[in-house]
Amino acid sequence: MSKKRRLTGLQPSGNLHIGNYFGALKPFVDEYRNYDSILMVVDYHALTSLKDGPQLRAHILSAVRDYLAVGIDPSSLVLFKQSDVLEHTELAWILDCLVTVPFLMQGHAYKDKLAKGLEANAGLFTYPMLMAADILLYDTELVPVGEDQRQHVEYAREAAAKFNLAFGQTFLEPKEQISANVGVVPGTDGLKMSKSYGNTIPLFGNRDETAQAVMSIVTDSAGDVPANVYAIHKLYKTEAELAPLYESNKGKYKALKEALIEDIEAHVAPMREKRASISDDDVKRVLVEGAEKARAIASAKMADVRQKIGVAL
Ligand code: TYM
Fold first, then answer.
1. Most buried among 69, 81, 198, 260, by the most CB within 10 A?
2. What local confidence, expressed as pLDDT, does residue 221 receive?
3. Does the beta carbon of 188 sit less than 6 angstroms from any atom of ligand 1?
């Protein structure tokens, strides 16, 4: 029996944080060999927020090193960068022509920007159709993501249905896969961990960076247990493992934070070591091979799409 196709992507808009890791990357990595897996660096999505060429280039290289360091073997899946497969932006345009402005105005990313009184660029507005293209091009069945991406996968389903209705059955309707307990990883202030809130703990920070982030965790808890520290600690150890530590350190927030720093360090140390052994050339080689594999799938799909919409003569 053939394996189900499962695909996800992360923006190289900054360094990955533990919310990205526990919410999306780890669930993907834990099971990627059981699926026909595709992992993307969605660099054109990052362009909606990042306008700095050298920085974007550095973030792309860094993101792929992160993927390899957390346990991805590039020969066991398709690992590529979005901008290397032109079919993504091509299909995004076609999908843009199928959806309405009011439909896109419901998008969280767009609405959040407006709510903050900021101006959204047109790329941010149509962003869900680029993500739909990422997913639909590969006949994806499952999309492992954090809770904040649920709406975007719904958008992809809607886009598939609209295209199929207009031009005949072409795209599968994908489903989101959101892990219980880690759909929303909390940040140092107890809100959703997010780069834009400045409440992150870096995945591959050095010891000082990790310690600084952990020490900044807000601890205005009413009881003996600092709720925000415990919520993050649970990502690294089971409740049974944590019980004696929290029992014997009631009200000792500093000691509990120090224990959390040790647990984060123990978890990341082997991955950090592996990461240090991966060069930029290794990354570039992986991306060239990945792009070839991705292009083979995407170009076959787009040949069918071009035929159906009538631009192929
Ligand atoms: P991005 O780059 O913002 O985030 C990458 C992944 O990390 C998850 N995540 C979290 N999960 C739990 N708790 C948190 N605090 C947390 N913060 C981030 C996100 O849900 C996401 O899964 N639009 C996407 C990227 C994308 C994509 C795709 C994903 C583009 N094309 C196709 C899947 C399939 C995004 O901006 O994710």
1. 260
2. 61
3. no
